[in-house]
Amino acid sequence: MDQFTLNLIFIGASFALYFGIAIWARAGSTAEFYAANRGVHPVMNGMATAADWMSAASFISMAGLIAFTGYDNSTYLMGWTGGYVLLAMLLAPYLRKFGKFTVPEFIGDRFYSKTARIIGVICLLIISITYVIGQMEGVGITFARYLEVSKETGLWIGAAVVFAYAVLGGMKGVTYTQVAQYIVLIIAYTIPAVFISLALTSNFLPQLGLFGSHDGSGMEFLTKLDQVVTDLGFKAYTEHNGSTLNMVLFTLALMIGTAGLPHVIIRFFTVPKVSDARSSAGWALVFIALLYTVAPAVGSMARLNLSTTMWPGAATGETYSQPAVSLADIETKPELNWMRTWAKTGLLKWEDLNGDGLIQYYNDKATEGPAAEMAAAQGLKGNELPTVSNDIMVLANPEIANLPGWVIAIVAAGGLAAALSTAAGLLLAISGAVSHDLIKGAINPGISEKSELLAARISMGVSILVATLLGLNPPGFAAQTVALAFGLAASSIFPVLMMGIFSKRVNKQGAIWGMIAGMISTLVYIFTYKGWFFIAGTNMLEDTAANWIFGIAPASFGVVGAAINFAVAYIVSGATEEPPAHVQELVESIRVPKGAGAATHH
């Protein structure tokens, strides 16, 4: 059976499963649409939360980021995982005890202000829309490669799939679909990793293989990888090169950004009891760890496989004594089919610059060492593999390693499951903010439940259309969507939730001005270096460490934005009247452990 047919079978079967679940778990009320009627078991919710969290960025991009940057990009693992610890300890149980459907609803009620609620909606929409662009891009890339359609066609197919199960099922349908998607994506991520770990290290567990011996050389695996990449003129894989300050700030920004992401927080509104919220956060960490502990191995093994494919001699330490892969090999050898198929997506590009029929992959900026010596001796004119996208490393890894066709098909289904599960969670958060917080909360408080449910479904459909159009024509800042989404969540949502739960003194004026200050300062800082979206492609200042304020990278600024939010909120609250007595009592009641098994009803 050819690869295309296998891909079609595996992807089609997974979609049929998602549609079947959506029909079975169709939401019939607003309680089911927004919060699955608060009836989800904590283990199931932990699995759904893991799928909601592990997006196209986690499944497709993260190992690629680690593959090409090595040690420095371990910040993604530490920050994203640490955020769940914050959620479990500081936010999830208390927000569940409050008993509301959405994050802006909590902000509006706790700070007794419709204005605060609307600002919460604006923050949520900016965060979720920028985040969902990346998911739709992931859907387009995966479809383009595995169903051999254009990226645009892939996006529309993905939008139709999400529309069918998210609009129909709401949170109830999405929850059980995400459980299925978690199972698909974890199998898809783990099976190729096990195969590749066995091939390179003879170790069944990739987590242990990473620290084991490399079969071809007898060296420690990471030592062998360091040797290969430094021979090719790149920096050592295990070396820390960036600023330690930025590494710490970026990890913190990812942590508090994770804890402030609305589509993740609303998952904890779906469990029956307060204690279940903390329990499901713990289970989510377990399920996330199954992928996140494998990711460093996937990234490093992908990097070694790519390097040794381009320079077969690198596997035995004779990097330049054997010729590089040739153009003839790429056209004729079945094991190099992956290069031809990925070249069609535009995510892999090569060019024979010196006309010798070979494709040399090395760092042409290296001025000394084997790479520079070889370039001088052979008259090379530059790196001839100029484009290897981070986004192809996980998806192409099974093909680079010549794994069976069914493994490649599973990875295709897994990549789509990761992107679609997060897209559905984000779209649900957007539709809840529009229908529950804007329409019911601000425009028409007397709306009937039937009309609100219809409004929720319509706003979900519109959200999917907008997300697809943004995915087709991404704005100038699309490449920075993750930095922007996490920076905004860290600087706007996380502080106001923390102060809402743990401070009786912060009032509505403090919350409003804190959110505005945190959000605007972060937006201004990021777009100063990353390009303002109303002046496409231009930057106010060049994005270099020399221009950053105190050397703080734009992606790390969320922590500073959060500090500004906290400071402004406390200063303004101190200069204005205390919150009403009933609000202070409410804050006290949220934190009191008495009756921790029960929750306030909506």
Brief descriptors of the model:
68% helix; 1% strand; symporter activity; sodium; transport; globular; 602 residues; two-stranded antiparallel sheet
Counted by DSSP, the helix tally is 24
Biggest β-sheet: strands ordered side by side in the sheet? 1-2
User: What order do the SSEs take from the amino end to the carboxyl end, as H and E?
Assistant: HHHHHHHHHHHHHHHHEHEHHHHHHH
Dominant shape: globular
| Count of extended strands | 2
* Alpha-carbon distance between the two ends: 54 Å
**Structural class estimated from helices and strands:** mainly alpha
For the record, the count of structural domains works out to: 2
- Biggest sheet architecture: 2 strands, antiparallel
Membrane topology: Multi-pass membrane protein
Protein name: Cation/acetate symporter
Subcellular location: Membrane
Keywords: Cell membrane, Ion transport, Membrane, Sodium, Sodium transport, Symport, Transmembrane, Transmembrane helix, Transport
Describe this structure in words.
A two-stranded antiparallel sheet has the order 1-2. The chain starts with a helix and ends in an 11-residue tail after the last helix. The model is unreliable at 533-537 and 595-599 (pLDDT under 50). It is mainly α and 602 residues long. Helices cover 68% and strands 1% of the residues. It folds into two domains: 3-297 and 403-466, no CATH class; 302-400, no CATH class. Pfam families: SSF. InterPro entries: Na/Glc_symporter_sf (IPR038377), Na/solute_symporter (IPR001734), Na/solute_symporter_CS (IPR018212), Na/solute_symporter_VC_2705 (IPR019899), Sodium:Solute_Symporter (IPR050277). This is Cation/acetate symporter. Belongs to the sodium:solute symporter (SSF) (TC 2.A.21) family. One of its GO terms (molecular function) is symporter activity.
